[in-house]
Amino acid sequence: MSALAGQDQELPQPPPPPRPTLQEVTAAEDRIEELSDSEWESQDSEAQDSDTMATPKITPSEYVRSVTIPIQDKLATGTTEVQDETLEAVLPFLQGNPNDFELNMFGLPTLRKEAHIKFLKHALGRYPSNFAAMDAARPWLLYWSLQGLTALGHDVSEYGERVVSTFAPFQHPTGGFGGGHGQLPHLACSYAATLSLIIVGTPSAYDSINRRTMWHYLGRMKQPDGGFTMCPGGEEDTRGAFIALVIISLLNLPLDLPPDAPARKTGLTTFLDHLGDWIGRCQTFEGGISAAPGNEAHGAYAFCALGCLSIMGAPASTFNKYLDMPRLLHWMTARQSAPEGGFHGRTNKLVDGCYSHWIGGCWPLVEAAGYTNIWNRNALARYILAAAQFKKGGLVDKPGKRPDAYHTCYNLAGLSAAQWRFAYDGGVEVEGEVGKGDLGAAFCWRVEGEWEDQRVWGEGDTVRVVHPVFVVPWGKAEEARRYFEEKEGF
Ligand SMILES: [Zn+2]
């Protein structure tokens, strides 16, 4: 029975039929319908009766037919038109295999690790002159590539010395990292540089970071209202708050503001003063979290806000203290596109592979705060495997787009969030006792194992665990923190 027909009694008028563009991409007999609960159950039990690992329970086409498109109104706007075009572009990949990729036992493309590794290694190489405009983003290019490679299981130790020597001149004498030699420092560059060096994880990589000047630099970003700017006089947003706490926590910097921090003049004494309240003010009427108070809720800023709160303390404590969680969950659940399965970042926006992480990565954090898993991990994995893999390697925003290191990194991080089950052990003895000092909350995570329920990926499609808060390979954050905890002073 059609889900739309089933809702007739509750609606004042029958919902409109799909718009023409949708009718073109789905034959009448394939029109997207939702199976009733009983149909689902009978199909499920039949599948379980003959359950073998070699037999998919549901083919990709059957899956797509089982997913309801959210009810749409008749008003055609620029927004609805690009949504229809997006669906038209994505559906062939969800239903079939236009790239002729090798398929896993669930009829979905396998994760083409070797092709993606080749793509990312290329991204760490030389760039043509037209990339000059990306010069200030060099720290990001390194981080995205290194993180993506490690998620694919590739050993990046071959890059260790080059990463250290590359970043050395990026570090500013007054603290923090810029985008290149002689460039002014910026929190975004400092974040990408710090994480890259922690991924390398050698003593020379750790010691290449000037922690004392970094502490002073972060102190200059702290604002009287509790937030952080991205650079002196720059924008104050949740990225700044997240990045500052990531760096303080990983490098085990003092929580007290440095004596020269301007915010001290307004009575603030620590990096955490007013911070939770400031993050809380970024939650919008929709329930999501924006860059700064008064802005529109956005997936990437939401991840930064939740990541920041996850470093400030146990998620169950900080999330509930500073956020309206039911409203946040309501907003988050609405960010998973159907039937695409991937996420979009804002209301009425299009599915995009990077939100596999920005929204997908929010879910382990809210689950750690005690909220039930109410997202569809398997649908996200379908989108990533079927629609986000570029034919020649690398991952993309959506079919038709070119791959880049950014979308490759964050599709893979999102796949980790979908494939792995995490638990938060706040208050429990931490392995090796790392993270006992200030801002140690994000070192209390545990990997419980792989997600199994109706999973759609084979063994070869699994990525390495990505730390849910720090977005580095599992274990690397702990190694860095331990190294800096064992160091005396700066
Ligand atoms: Zn994107």
Automatic annotation (TrEMBL):
UniProt cross-references to CDD domains, sorted A to Z: FTase
Biased composition (Acidic residues): 35-49
GO cellular component terms, A-Z: protein farnesyltransferase complex
Domain Prenyltransferase alpha-alpha toroid, chain residue ranges per copy: 111-471
UniProt-recorded Gene Ontology molecular function terms: protein farnesyltransferase activity; zinc ion binding
EC number(s) reported in the record: 2.5.1.58
InterPro entries with a match to the protein in the record: FTB (IPR026872), PGGT1B-like (IPR045089), Prenyltrans (IPR001330), Terpenoid_cyclase/PrenylTrfase (IPR008930)
Free-text comment on the cofactor: Binds 1 zinc ion per subunit.
Recorded catalytic activity of this chain's protein: L-cysteinyl-[protein] + (2E,6E)-farnesyl diphosphate = S-(2E,6E)-farnesyl-L-cysteinyl-[protein] + diphosphate
Region Disordered, residue ranges: 1-59
Cofactor: Zn(2+)
Reported function: Catalyzes the transfer of a farnesyl moiety from farnesyl diphosphate to a cysteine at the fourth position from the C-terminus of several proteins. The beta subunit is responsible for peptide-binding.
Assembly behavior: Heterodimer of an alpha and a beta subunit.
Family from the record: Belongs to the protein prenyltransferase subunit beta family.
Name of the protein in question: Protein farnesyltransferase subunit beta
